[in-house]
């Protein structure tokens, strides 16, 4: 018996109507999957741009401690920058310009600590040295010295070359800095006018590296009596400025793309760990850097000696497996 034309047409219309939501759902799901795959692929490419370090972290126990090191090495720079930052007093190899410890406890806010690179350690095991010089023997030597000599274990390590900071700052469009008076530091190639100004990457690098700035007073350049020889104050300003600027995924992607090849990381610092570190760093930088105090001796070869205040400041970072007594 033939189906009436009207009933057959109504059935086809109903079938098409029922199929449309399913088809739309399939298209939506496929689109979402494609977006997720692209995002993951992009993230893996970005992570892959960050070279790996041959280093075994000592571990901090509960929570996470990240070692963030600014290297003074010129050897990985291009020819123009090697010439720009040439220093006759700088031997080959690398030392730590800044030693920062990012502590992210299991509960509570993350904090960022700046340890003097000239901290005099290792005397009790008959290998005295300044902490930052340990990097000359490789990242593992610095990690081991922090554990054995300072009592601080770390879970992950990131080493940044000069170019990393320059790339980050330029990518986010510079950072604002305020100085009360014109300020310079010829050795660090720093030259700032008084007032608030936006520093580009090279200016920010000079600001972070400045150790002996001068200010212009009464037409004469004089040593800045308020200068921070540990460089922690300037580092905090720069990190805070970068963290504030990394406020959207596109900027984060561009920044990591620009700085990636000038960073190095331990093998365990993959994409999830990098994201966790970035979240912790953002909160810690906003709260300000904790400068670990020490008795500074600004001689021809500067030294920073451990005091009771040094030990107290490092207490939140002490690790069970790295107790120094």
Automatic annotation (TrEMBL):
Domain Cell envelope-related transcriptional attenuator: 95-213
Family label: Belongs to the LytR/CpsA/Psr (LCP) family.
Organism the protein comes from: Pedococcus ginsenosidimutans
Coiled coil as UniProt keyword: no
PANTHER family found in the cross-reference section: POLYISOPRENYL-TEICHOIC ACID--PEPTIDOGLYCAN TEICHOIC ACID TRANSFERASE TAGU
Transmembrane domains' residue ranges: 26-46
Pfam families the record matches: LytR_cpsA_psr
Keyword field: Membrane, Transmembrane, Transmembrane helix
InterPro entries cross-referenced by the UniProt entry: LytR/CpsA/Psr_CW_biosynth, LytR_CpsA_psr
Name the UniProt record assigns to this protein: Cell envelope-related transcriptional attenuator domain-containing protein
């Amino acid at each position: 018996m033939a189906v009436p034309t009207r009933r057959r047409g109504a059935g086809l219309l109903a079938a098409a109507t029922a199929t449309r939501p399913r088809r739309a759902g399939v298209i939506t799901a496929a689109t979402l999957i494609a977006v997720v795959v692209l995002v993951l692929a992009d993230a893996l490419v970005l992570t892959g741009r960050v070279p790996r370090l041959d280093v075994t972290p000592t571990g901090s126990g509960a929570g996470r401690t990240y070692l963030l090191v600014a290297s003074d090495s010129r050897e990985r720079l291009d020819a123009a920058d090697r010439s720009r930052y040439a220093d006759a007093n700088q031997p080959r190899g690398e030392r730590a310009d800044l030693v920062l410890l990012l502590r992210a406890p299991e509960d509570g806010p993350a904090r960022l600590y700046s340890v003097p690179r000239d901290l005099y350690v290792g005397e009790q095991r008959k290998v005295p040295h300044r902490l930052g010089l340990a990097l000359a023997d490789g990242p593992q030597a610095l990690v081991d010295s922090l554990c054995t000599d300072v009592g601080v274990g770390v879970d992950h390590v990131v080493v940044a070359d000069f170019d990393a900071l320059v790339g980050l700052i330029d990518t986010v469009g510079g950072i604002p800095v305020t100085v009360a008076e014109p300020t310079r530091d010829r050795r660090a190639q720093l030259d700032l006018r008084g007032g608030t100004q936006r520093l580009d990457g090279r200016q920010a690098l000079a600001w972070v590296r400045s150790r002996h700035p001068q200010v212009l007073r009464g037409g004469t350049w004089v040593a800045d009596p308020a200068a921070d020889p540990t460089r922690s104050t300037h580092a905090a300003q720069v990190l805070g400025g970068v963290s504030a600027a990394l406020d959207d995924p596109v900027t984060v992607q561009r920044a990591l793309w620009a700085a990636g090849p000038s960073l190095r990381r331990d093998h365990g610092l993959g994409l999830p760990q990098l994201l966790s570190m970035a979240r912790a760093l953002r909160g810690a930088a906003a709260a300000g850097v904790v400068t670990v105090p020490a008795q500074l001796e600004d001689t021809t070869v500067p030294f920073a000696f451990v005091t009771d205040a040094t030990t107290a400041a490092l207490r939140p970072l002490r690790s069970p497996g790295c107790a120094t007594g």
